């Protein structure tokens, strides 16, 4: 079964995606990341070690959602099929040099992630059950006073992450299980619904607990396998790194006169796939960041933690996939059909044998499954924002809709739905980027306040009364004034 859109709507969606993802968003995302990097004096480099220091105490939550659980939830959404198939697509179309530009995208994206996650924490609201809610919708309304824009953002997020992307992730799981283990797609759809239902009906705390357990385990297993592949091919590692760098700047293609085209393809594919993978600036991860009870008790603390998510997603996990593919040799890139997950499967099989393809199928299952529940959580937060007092009923309807989309995604071809979701995500990204650029002085002030207290040997504590632009806009139940 193929889910399609009317021809006119399809043409409009394709044209919108071409404009957004072909130019506007690339310049806006990279430009914003560079601006935040300069204004914080390269916070992602200067405070690199501090991120890991905060991680050690990030599991304390006093009955709420901990910083580590919020990080795991955002990683669950970030680390998905893009880390397996997306890297392969970037290398296939952009050459090994695309990986270099993925790295650069992640580096500036870390600063963007700090800004949007810090703002999400500052404007978070008390949910009444020892947890919090927040994200772009809240800081757009509270910080900018633009309720209509916040509503538009929430609608775009619910369409893209809450519904469409969950169908696509379910489709990836079903197809991988059918190919590797001959499990019918409809049967896999029913299994997924049965597994996902109790988790999402348990609410955001349930999702955070599952993410806390599954995400570190799946990432660790995948990284161990990648390290084994590198160890088996350690003599080829310097050549692989050199290939990435040379390809990034068209050095290998210079002799053939195609240097300009090669560089443009490497840059475009690397940046696009990097942005899709780490989601920095998209406005998705702040929804998870806002739920955390931070330690220290300061908005910037979760900003540092969420920076780590971008690093782990792109600079660690995507690099692991790139190493597996590049070390398998250039001959794998010759086949026209090997431009996605098949390339990753064949590369791994060339290193470890036929079971490599089965391992990738299981990795897809875990990566995509955790993305489903994390994407759901983003949607729930925004459903609650839109519904207000009617939130319990609206959330119940949303849960049923998500389960239905999982089943549809398992048995249908969703190319048109994927394109529509890309357009929705592009729109929410533009809204979020404009908002965080306008609100960035507040994020910079919060960073300065945190830094001053830290350098004075104190544990940073947030006092809203010290920030005139925040004092009347912060939920007092979420951030009680400290004396």
From TrEMBL:
Gene3D superfamilies: Amino acid/polyamine transporter I
Superkingdom of origin organism: Bacteria
Lipid bilayer topology: Multi-pass membrane protein
Keywords: Cell inner membrane, Cell membrane, Membrane, Symport, Transmembrane, Transmembrane helix, Transport
Pfam family, one: Na_Ala_symp
Segments passing through the bilayer: 20-43, 75-94, 144-168, 180-201, 213-234, 304-328, 355-376, 397-421, 427-447
PROSITE patterns, A to Z: NA_ALANINE_SYMP
Cell location: Cell inner membrane; Cell membrane
Family note: Belongs to the alanine or glycine:cation symporter (AGCS) (TC 2.A.25) family.
Alphabetized NCBIfam families for the sequence: agcS (TIGR00835)
Protein name as it appears in the record: Alanine:cation symporter family protein
Species whose genome carries this gene: Vreelandella piezotolerans
